[in-house]
Design goal:
The protein is an alpha+beta fold and 172 residues long. It is built from six helices and seven strands, in the order H-E-H-E-E-H-E-E-H-E-H-E-H. A hairpin with a 2-residue loop joins strand 2 and strand 3.
Length: 172
């Protein structure tokens, strides 16, 4: 059976802080939003450590309360392909150039989120939530990749993508 969610969320960030000189740990699959909030905190724009971010409180690892998963994924910016050197990725796909996208975060799965016995991502990254981007936004991103970079193959790295949500798949 899968490990309890709490062990992933509590033990790994605390272990990192105990065994490294890191000041903060931004865990989970919404690290981009957490990291942006942490940058605002470090810059002095926000007095409190952002929710969900682990830090040292009196020398002891502690998690700041809060930080639900990002509800509306379409509010997040697209990947900056130039900054990340997208062309260096693509592994052994059939058509080049190839690119990665995320149509969502988390997997609804056949039996519901976190029901796969082989997948740790639901516990380690997605807090047992399954969220999908608007299918039109996903189609726009794919069209942009084809138009701007000549991408011929796209890999959706969102577990099973929208395959578990038939309404989403039909709209896409």
């Amino acid at each position: 059976s899968p490990l309890p969610r709490s062990s992933f969320e509590r033990d790994f960030p605390a272990e990192t802080l105990r065994n490294s000189p890191a000041d903060f740990v931004v865990p989970g699959g919404d690290y981009d939003a957490g990291l942006a909030a942490l940058a605002r905190h470090v810059a002095g724009e926000s007095p409190d450590v952002p929710g969900g971010v682990w830090h040292r409180a009196g020398g002891v690892p502690a998690e700041a309360p809060g930080a639900p998963p990002v509800a509306e994924l379409d509010t997040l910016p697209w990947i900056d392909r130039e900054l990340t050197h997208w062309e260096r990725y693509g592994e052994a796909y059939l058509h080049r150039p190839a690119a990665y996208i995320l149509s969502g975060r988390g997997c609804g799965g056949v039996k519901g989120p976190g029901r796969c016995s082989f997948c740790i991502w639901q516990y380690a990254f997605w807090k047992m939530t399954a969220r999908l981007r608007d299918p039109r936004a996903v189609a726009r991103e794919i069209a942009d990749l084809a138009d701007r970079y000549g991408v011929r193959e796209v890999f959706d790295d969102n577990d099973s993508g929208g395959m578990w949500d038939l309404a989403w798949l039909a709209a896409f």
